[in-house]
Amino acid sequence: MMRSTTVDTGLRSATPSSPVWDKGADGWNNHATLIRSWLHDVTAAMLDAAGVAPGSRVLDIAAGAGDQTLDVARRVGPQGYVLATDISARMLALAQENLRAAGLQHVDTRLADAQALGLAGSDFDAAVCRLGLMFCPDPLAALTGTRQALKPGGRLAAVVFSQPQHNPCLTLMMATALQHAGVPAKQPFEPGTLLSLGKPGLLAQLLDDAGFVGVDVQPVSAPFCVPSSQHYVDFVRASGSPVMAILASLPVQAQKDAWDEMVQRLNVFTTPAGWVGPNELLLCAAVAPAVGSV
Ligand SMILES: C[S@@+](CC[C@H](N)C(=O)[O-])C[C@H]1O[C@@H](n2cnc3c(N)ncnc32)[C@H](O)[C@@H]1O
User: Fold this and answer.
1) Which whole number is the average pLDDT over 240-266?
2) Which of 86, 94, 235, 241 is the best mutation target for the ligand 1 pocket, counting ligand atoms within 8 Å of the beta carbon and taking the most?
3) How many Å apart are CA 109 and CA 21, to the nearest integer?
4) 109: helix, strand or coil
5) Running DSSP on this structure, what letter comes out for residue 55?
6) Domains located in the chain, CATH noted
7) Is the Cβ atom of 130 under 6 angstroms away from ligand 1?
8) Which residue from 29, 189, 195, 243 could staple onto 65, CB 3.0 to 4.6 Å apart?
9) pLDDT tens track for 4-42
10) pLDDT for 185-223, tens place per residue?
11) H/E element holding 274?
12) CA–CA separation, 240 vs 262, rounded Å?
């Protein structure tokens, strides 16, 4: 693959941008400082697990507004290369702005559905995906395409949400939104949803089925710390595309009622030191085997 110092706006891509994710893109980017501090440790662990090092060529899948892309690009340095992909053109436009502002030119962006990357044979040294894989209704297709984009011995590391009982804020918000929208509750591991890959054993099985070896999946605690439940709801209200999408068809006042109820119910996580929302993630790592061994 050619190394380029210009960004590919994705406009030539056959992938249509996702309106749902485009809608939450600015809100997600506006909360970058909060997200960075929430995911600081697990992001560093993800890059370590993927073996990202100076000079590496790295594929960043579902890169969003590029927060972890900045870390990858800094770590690989100007001798390395990063391709940041996402299904939202708006997210990628923001990623381009952020990368440009940081003076990082060894990164391209490409509009691409993670389930149809079309990058087989690209020989990437590493692939990372932070909080994106669980939104793929067909995660096996995403993982298989990722494995094919890696060189033999190349490493994947990804972060997803774990089980519902360890992510009570997410389950509470989704349940409240569904209730207000009059939509029946979904089963927690429904493919393509927030907690879809939290089902015990599922992620390891999918990595195995996708042809990876050396599969490792570890839980990581990542509490969300803000001054109050209102701050957390304001974050989700601006950027939490899955919850926003459930409420989108309701009248404005009905939406406000739903958000207000979430603030109240989330107060159970208020502590003397502020609001601390429990979150558990899964950090997975796996290796693309030598050609011919799959
Ligand atoms: C929660 S955000 C995470 C963004 C970024 N990785 C981060 O951690 O800041 C989820 C991202 O997944 C992207 N996404 C959702 N479904 C996708 C798909 N099928 N293919 C590629 N990206 C997808 C969204 O557009 C969004 O940018």
Assistant:
1) 94
2) 86
3) 16
4) strand
5) T
6) 19-163+187-225+278-287 (3.40.50.150)
7) yes
8) 29
9) 323 333 334 567 889 889 999 999 999 999 999 999 999
10) 888 899 999 999 999 999 999 999 999 999 999 999 999
11) strand 274-277
12) 13
126 has which bridge partners? 58, 155
Residue 146 Cβ < 6 Å to ligand 1: no
CA atoms within 13 A on the CB side of 231: 14
The DSSP secondary-structure symbol of 62 reads T
> Quick one: three-class SS letters along 149-201?
HEEEEEEEEEEEECCHHHCHHHHHHHHHHHHHHCCCCCCCCCCCCCCHHHCCC
Decide: 117 in ligand 1 pocket, CB within 6 A.
no
Nearest to 184 by CA among 246, 96, 115: 246
Chain-centroid distance of CA 185 in Å reads 23
**Comparing C-alpha atoms, which of 218, 247, 257, 231 is closest to residue 169?**
231
Q: What is the DSSP letter of 105?
A: -
* Spacing, Cα 194 to ligand 1 middle (Å): 11
Q: Which amino acid residue places its CA nearest to atom 5 of ligand 1?
A: 64
Q: Ligand 1 centre and the CA of 153: distance in Å?
A: 25
Please name the residue whose Cα sits nearest to atom 4 of ligand 1: 64
Dihedral angle computed from the Cα positions of residues 207, 213, 219 and 220, in that order, rounded to the nearest 10 degrees: -110
